[in-house]
Amino acid sequence: MAEADRKLANGADRIDFKTDPSRYRHWKLAVEGDTATLTMDVDENAPLFEGYQLKLNSYDLGVDIELADALERLRFEQPQVRVVLLRSGKPRVFCAGANIRMLAAASHAHKVNFCKFTNETRNAIEDASEFSGQRMICVVTGSCAGGGYELALAADHIILVDDGSSTVSLPELPLLAVLPGTGGLTRVTDKRKVRRDHADVFCTTEEGVKGRRAVDWKLVDEVVPNSKLDETVAARAQEFAAKSDRPADAKGIVLAPLQVKATPQGRETALVSVEIAGRIATITLRGPQSAPPADMNMMLAQGSAFWPLALARELDDAILDIRLNEFEVAAIVFKSEGDAAAVLAHDELLEENKAHWLAREIRLKWKRVLKRVDLTSRTLVTLVEPGSCFAGTLAELVLAADRSYMLVGQRDGDNRPAAAMALHAVNFGPYLMSNGLTRLATRFLDDDKAVAAAKKAIGEVIDAGAAGELGLVTFALDDIDWEDEIRVFLEERASFSADSLTGLEANLRFGGPETMETKIFARLTAWQNWIFQRPNAVGEEGALRRYGTGQKAVFDTKRV
Amino acid sequence: MAEADRKLANGADRIDFKTDPSRYRHWKLAVEGDTATLTMDVDENAPLFEGYQLKLNSYDLGVDIELADALERLRFEQPQVRVVLLRSGKPRVFCAGANIRMLAAASHAHKVNFCKFTNETRNAIEDASEFSGQRMICVVTGSCAGGGYELALAADHIILVDDGSSTVSLPELPLLAVLPGTGGLTRVTDKRKVRRDHADVFCTTEEGVKGRRAVDWKLVDEVVPNSKLDETVAARAQEFAAKSDRPADAKGIVLAPLQVKATPQGRETALVSVEIAGRIATITLRGPQSAPPADMNMMLAQGSAFWPLALARELDDAILDIRLNEFEVAAIVFKSEGDAAAVLAHDELLEENKAHWLAREIRLKWKRVLKRVDLTSRTLVTLVEPGSCFAGTLAELVLAADRSYMLVGQRDGDNRPAAAMALHAVNFGPYLMSNGLTRLATRFLDDDKAVAAAKKAIGEVIDAGAAGELGLVTFALDDIDWEDEIRVFLEERASFSADSLTGLEANLRFGGPETMETKIFARLTAWQNWIFQRPNAVGEEGALRRYGTGQKAVFDTKRV
Questions:
Q1: Chain A residues whose beta carbon lies within 8 Å of the beta carbon of residue B330
Q2: B125 and B232 in a common domain
């Protein structure tokens, strides 16, 4: 159940992350040649939860789920699209940001996970631009406030119409006593390089900035009079399209709907089972049932049924479902079943064809799903047992875990061979974490020798002893200790304070460099979460609660 | 008044940061040749606040104020000291970390600022090692837990005695439901490069790690049996001393006690006035009264009265006083009075002699004081007016401000010349912020041209017009607008939520790269502050409150 105290407007008992354009209520997606237009036109009468309207193109998680879906489809279904124009379908407003009544009524856990998802969606926009040649141009007509401007900030280029009234603003602080926390502060300073004192003025000015000053302060890339808007947008689209390497005449694949079956303990999709027992969710991933397709044409023919893509999508949906619907889950335990050689054969096909647009998209999708795992604030545990297939791409789940356990030798009464892992080139490059390093490089921070030793083991069958020596798993255990040790560990974990685990894991998972992305999820988000707890924002007299009531917020004036 | 609801044990009404070895209750400082021994021997009956005892070498802010003082004195008063041995004066315990009863009873604002100060002190240990050739070796005998181990982590080398009972541990999470927030998590992953899964085990294990495993997991540098402890410590001290560039036969200067006079509106020291009106504190810095000493010998003779050093110490104390005693202050306004040429002459003397130990120390002291300003969570405003001397080192206070205002031309009825700023080489190198960049480089992130233009202006008299063009100030205002504009701005600032300002400023001030230091103050601290607000730690049934009561903490099990 998503949240005991709130009702989903559609009468369902869980938030559903699956959608498709035929079901969109808030976005219109139109494609013409190499240019797509994504129009935000929020249906104010279709909120996710009961109790508020989505006025002025404001958004809630439901709106963002559609956006995330549209962005995914553009990459897989429209390989020829090189430029995405982000526009508003409303006359005088671009987007008013996250809906305030929704925020005021949401639980802390929902707010935090809502922000995490919207952040991931905006990061995906930048990922499409940087790695997939799909650039975004944001055309701001009308008021573009708060989360609306934060969405614009994710684009490569922001055009602001110069009509005397269209503005960009981050009014969160003066209006609501919270931060522009969906990447806003970080992108203002680190992406757009707005001078810190200008940023200070901008972020404390309710009414925002328009016209020339918006360009001078680097808040937008250009201002254009209404009369020249269409030609400017067309010209910029052409310029950005010219620099893209996306294939001109490729045909996309269709992302078929995921079929999810509820089970008494959890859920099943074709390749992923989720079982929840007590406060532990076990996610079991199934390896490929057959050899990979012989060539790229056959891979294209498999479409979204192609094993790596199908698994990535199912895992992603399972993680999101736990994040937003199962707040009591303390730990996620990853298991796998299948043939490691078949996993590696799929990795190899993608590696050999990594320049092909679809192979590239699939690996980028895995990169994003694995980052979503890294950023999930539940304890992550991976169990490497006989019959498992933690090889290549799936070995990343061993490295993503807070702890991993590997069984030494065979299991009593089980004639399957001893557990083994395997590494592949894919573990040494494409799946960068948000800190810009591979999981192995993060694990062995500045220890090039350890990374080299792991690289040398590519192609080897890595048993528990070797995995321990290479430092790939935390503990290698005998059958006799296995069950007790893991049970005690999981019980202990569930007994700790949930909040302190969130903080611990957020720190230990991201050693090494910080990037704009890690800054957003750490410096910015952690401060925002702190503010989301403080009475000045969320108390009875706080700004979030008092907004729109006509009563002024009352603040504790102590500076902490 | 420090905190309305708590009483200082010494009966005073403000926390005092000034001390000297003759008044230490908790530390012993002994110097022999090039080696100092700093012995922690906390007097359990001398807590800072009433209501708890400092058992088992646990610490509160009072203990840390003495440590910070000892570290400062070692640098200025003992230039020949190359190695500092950090030891415990208690038989079976090294240090039990921050005192839990103190934490449980402290206000949120005190806790947060206590942690900030202790973090700054540990960073100063690393600063002494990296920039000043004073290395620290920590000799762990007995139990070294929590903040005790975090103190050890600041050292260059950790020796753990192998006696079967001496351990290092970070039991904050399992015991208290908070984080090892005084740099612990960050130094474990980023300084000592402990593998993230080992770190996970270590940080969730109450009893800690001893012997061989502590070395294998990189938690300490060596374990040594009791019988070989003395010779090992002596050998390491010799090794580290051999690599230091500190002068063998220099004589130190004495850091004379600061004379602080309370005034009806604030306080006065020789060079710094603090005036508090409403929620605004105005700090006025006075420039040098005379030309700098002719040479280094005369500078040594001036000792701690030498203007740059005297001003740095007074400013530091003023900032700390506001941070811990004046929680209602929303903004600090910096002003200055004096002769810019005289400021620059002092900067030039230090620049010419930057290889001299004392000149180096004074510049490093300024670096630390300016970082303290950056990290002060109050709005920082600098006003550049006629008669001010924001030149060279003092110009850093314009660049450190969230906003700065400069008066254009002369003031009506004031015949002093128009306000001017001046830059010096000192603005382009030695005063790195904790992000590893100069304030100018942070201001003009990736805009080398703007930095170069500022560099070209070295030696010029920069009036308001030029300062605006160079981007050194936020607003240049005429006399006619000055008073109203600034008054309205300060009133508005004081009307905003204090917490959201803290978050905003913490984000906007630190654009660009993150370092271990910024990670500690952002990722780690922000999460800790969040946890310090959560009922699982600080609620009636939370772990911090229930610790030692015999009652188990009760947790909200929701993962956020």
A1: 557, 559
A2: yes
Question: Does residue A154 sit in helix, strand or coil?
Answer: coil
Domain count, chain B: 2
Contacts of residue B23, Cβ cutoff 8 Å, sequence gap at least 6: none
Co-location of A301 and A179 in the same domain: no
ipTM: 0.96
What is the torsion angle, in degrees rounded to the nearest 10, for the CA atoms of residue A14, residue A17, residue A20 and residue A24?
A: 70
CA dist A225 and A322 (Å) reads 47
Taking an 8 Å cut-off on Cβ atoms, the answer to whether A500 and B471 are in contact is no
Query: What residues of chain B lie within 8 A of the CB of A474, using their CB?
Result: 197-198, 200-201
Domain assignment of residue B309, given as a range: 262-509
Judgement on whether residues B436 and B470 belong to the same structural domain of the protein? yes
Q: Is residue B1 part of a domain?
A: no
3-state secondary structure (DSSP) of residue A144: strand
The CATH number for A465's domain is 3.90.226.10
Does B549 reside within a domain? Answer: no
First to last CA, chain B: 36
The partner residue sitting opposite B534, judged by closest CB among A377, A519, A533, is A533
Residues A271 and A311 in one domain: yes
B208 and B303 together in one domain: no
Cα separation, A223 vs A158, in Å, equals 9
Which of B107, B196, B213, B323 is the best mutation test for A, with the most CBs of A within 10 A?
A: B196
The answer to whether B499 and B489 are in contact (CB under 8 A) is no
Domain boundary among B489, B509, B529: B509
Encode pLDDT of B68-119 as tens digits.
999 999 999 999 999 999 999 999 999 999 999 999 999 999 999 999 999 9
Q: Do B116 and B200 sit in the same domain of this protein?
A: yes
Q: What is the pLDDT of residues A420-462, one digit of tens each?
A: 999 999 999 999 999 999 999 999 999 999 999 999 999 999 9
User: B207 with B147, same domain?
Assistant: yes
For residue A2, pLDDT over 50 is answered with no
Predicted local distance difference test score (pLDDT) of residue B3: 55
What are A407's strand-pairing partners?
Answer: A477
> How distant, in Å, are the alpha carbons of A145, B347, B425 from that of B354?
50, 10, 12
